[in-house]
Structure formats: structure tokens, C-alpha cells
Amino acid sequence: MKKVFAIFACLLLAGSYSEAAQQGKSAAKGMSDEELIRTAMSAAPPHISRDATIMAPGTDGIRTLKEGTNEFTCIADLSGQESPDPVCADKAATAWFTSFFNKEEKPAATAPGVAYMGLGGWHWEKDGQVVMDPATPGAKRVKEPPHWMILWPFDEKATGLPVMPNRFGAYVMYQGTPYSHLMIHQDPMKLPTPAARK
Ligand SMILES: [Cu+2]
Fold first, then answer.
1. What's the whole-model pTM score?
2. Cα 5 to middle of ligand 1, angstroms
3. Checking phi first, is residue 67 left (phi over 0); if not, alpha (psi -120 to 50) or beta?
4. Cα angle at 84 between 176 and 172, to 5 degrees?
5. What mean pLDDT value characterizes the chain?
6. Which domain holds residue 84?
7. 183 Cα to the center of ligand 1, angstroms
8. Contact criterion met (CB below 8 Å) for 147 and 190
9. Backbone angles phi, psi at 11, to 5 degrees
């Protein structure tokens, strides 16, 4: 049963990026490499994004635009919408997103990852639930505010956390799937630099 569910989740994921991009509304699709790099870097404050590896999704997985020198990778766009939703991810989170873009049935990450989305992002809802596939009939698009994430399969029952955005400011997204993770509605641009931390 677990296996069947994992395959189902995988099929859902397969629809996500390529479909949005094929509909022609992807802002990232028409961007030059330079614009993609600038967009990717806007997901996190400069002390994180400045020396990060830069990647961009295509219809066929994900490609590298610039090699970085720190632990972070910034990806220019996640959802393929008219305004891009870039992310800056640490090592474990990059493994998670790589699995996501390569449509693997579950993330390859072996430790919790941290990722920043300073421009916010998008999700899709149907019948009071966040759904993974934007092409789900009847699903409606909802804007996410600037946030950061802990990418690890958190569970509603085990943690007591909600599974929908709410006033508390945190929730488990994609509850019940291998891609479940913790969403935290705090603006990454307010992150203090290491020098300012006391
Ligand atoms: Cu999320």
C-alpha cells in the first residue's frame, strides 16, 4: 500500500513544472541566463545567495548556470508561473529539490534540509487541501508569502501541526506524501547576517 501511494505521488509530481511551463505562462522560460541568476539569488539574503551555485529548471529536469563556493544552491523558479518563485537551498534541501525536479518517487535527501523563498511562492488547493499537482481538476492557485522551509517528511499526527496555511504561521505542506515538509511564514530577508547575530 505504501508503495502504491508513493507511485501515485510520483505521477502527481510529474505534472507540475512541465505543465505550467508548457502553458506558456512561465516567466523563467523567457529569461536570459543573467536574469535567471539574478532571480535565483533573490530567494535569500546576499550572505547566502552571493556565493551559491545557481540552477534553473527546464522542461527536462534542472541545469546548472553557475558553480558556487558555499553550501547553498539557488534555483531560479519552482512553479513556472508568470512571476517566478526562486528558492535557495542548503545541501540536503538541494538533494530534495533535485529529486522533485527529476520526478523521483521520493526525495533522495537523507537529512532535513533548509530552504529560503524570499519572494514567496505558489501552491494549489482543492476541497480545503493543498494538492501537489497544479493540473488537478478544480484546483485553485494560492500565493504563498515569503517563507522558509524545513524539508523533511513531517506528519500532522506525530507533530500536532496544521496542514494548511494559518495564523500560526507554520504548516505541513503535502501531508501524507514523501514530499511532505514544514512551511514557515517568516521573511528570509529579515534573517540576520552572521555578523549581526548576538
Ligand atoms: Cu512548501
1. 0.87
2. 20
3. beta
4. 20
5. 88
6. 2-196
7. 5
8. no
9. -65, -40
